[in-house]
Amino acid sequence: MRKQTFLKRHLQSIGWALVTTGAILLLVAWLTGLTTINAVLLAGLLLIVLGVFLCVKAIKNASNY
Asked: Which residue from 65, 25, 62, 43 is spatially nearest to 13, judged by alpha carbons?
């Protein structure tokens, strides 16, 4: 059995944390009226996309296919 690194063991958890952080960032931006600042919206979007990518990668690596 191969030894897994910390990152490989917690890849899905890190992905979910990034998705949650991105969603909270977008929600806070909407509540405070910062929806005209593209950098805030882009940061939230990138966090969500990166989190989904990490979750999919973790699920793919865990399967036998």
From this structure: 62
- pLDDT tens-place string over residues 12-54: 899 999 999 999 999 999 999 999 999 999 999 999 999 999 9
pTM score, whole prediction: 0.85
Which tokens go with 52? 């989904």
CB neighbour list of residue 26: distance below 8 Å, 6 or more residues apart: 41, 44, 45, 48
Cβ partners under 8 Å of residue 19, min gap 6: 47, 48, 51, 52, 55
